[in-house]
Write a structure and sequence with these properties.
300 residues, alpha+beta, two-stranded antiparallel sheet, ten-stranded antiparallel sheet, 2 helices, 3 domains
């Protein structure tokens, strides 16, 4: 005997009862379909939930990447400003080199002006430049900037050292008259005022009143002061750099042996000691032990 399932459907409108007769096979098939739809709906809901989470995560990552790209563009613009300042510093250093007439013996590649790489192209939108390209160019510029800083630091250090050396050389090079008067005998060949014979005069004679002060023509150290026969009271100053000045016929000294003196300091008093025809200063300049014309070392 076959089994059938009967389904009764009641209506609220009291229109009667509807009766459906289902065979077991149809009922099982309907149940399987309903179960499949339920499982599928649950699986689809699970996937949809995770898909929405992934979409949210992707949107968050995209927003972070966008912000990072904007930060990189802003940083690249700051690096460009630093690069321009570095170029200005490089130009200024080279200008000082030209003014000071300093030869730093720098390689040719150090004497140019301008950056070593192409400038970073900052864009208004991140679509114009990808983060990867921006990062690579930024790293390249930062490395170039670091190299430029090292170069300009070395140039500035060498420039400062050379200017300081020149300043010291200038301070230690005779450049003013040791005393005020009139030149009665110049450097070079002359007729001796005592014998009338030709002799080589190794300095110049500056005639002035007895008691006129003698000033150091440059920075240096008084190495000696003593009585020196025909030269009378005699003083020697070592200025360094191979330069020595000597003063003869002094009345007396103001500076003492071993004393450091600066340009313009009073060091002695003009006199008439030794073999002399009158009150005057005999002034000599030696460079590396060789007598030179003192007038080359006084301002006109």
């Amino acid at each position: 005997m076959k089994t059938h399932w009967t389904v009764l459907i009641l209506s609220k409108e009291d229109t009667g009862i509807r009766r459906f007769t289902l065979s077991p096979l149809i009922a099982m098939s309907a149940g399987c379909v309903i179960l499949f739809l339920a499982v599928f709906s649950a699986f689809a809901g699970y996937k949809l939930y995770h898909l929405r989470a992934d979409i949210s995560r992707v949107a968050s990552i995209k927003q972070k990447n966008l912000e990072q790209s904007r930060q990189i563009v802003a940083l690249s613009e700051k690096v460009l400003l630093l690069d321009e300042e570095m170029n200005s510093l490089r130009t200024f250093n080279r200008h000082l080199v030209g003014i000071a007439k300093v030869d730093l013996h720098a390689p040719d590649e150090l004497s140019g002006v301008g950056g070593g790489s192409e400038p970073i192209r900052a864009a208004n939108t991140t679509e114009a430049l990808t983060e990867k390209i921006l990062t690579r160019e930024l790293h390249s510029h930062i490395k170039q900037l670091g190299d430029d800083i090292v170069i300009e630091r070395d140039v500035a250090r060498d420039l400062l050292a050379e200017i300081e050396r020149q300043r010291s050389l200038l301070a230690h090079t005779p450049g003013i008259w040791p005393t005020r008067g009139w030149v009665t005998s110049r450097y070079g060949w002359r007729n001796s005022p005592f014998t009338g014979k030709r002799e080589y005069h190794k300095g110049m004679d500056i005639a002035c009143r007895k008691g006129t002060p003698v000033h150091a023509p440059a920075d240096g150290i008084v190495t000696s002061y003593y009585r020196n026969g025909a030269y009378g009271n005699f003083m020697v100053i070592n200025h360094g750099y191979g330069i020595v000045t000597r003063y003869a016929h002094l009345n007396n000294s103001v500076a003492k042996a071993g004393q450091h003196v600066r340009k313009g300091d009073r060091i002695a008093i003009v006199g008439n000691t030794g073999r002399s025809t009158g009150s005057h200063l005999h002034y000599e300049v030696l460079v590396n032990g060789i007598h030179v014309n003192p007038q080359r070392y006084v301002l006109k």
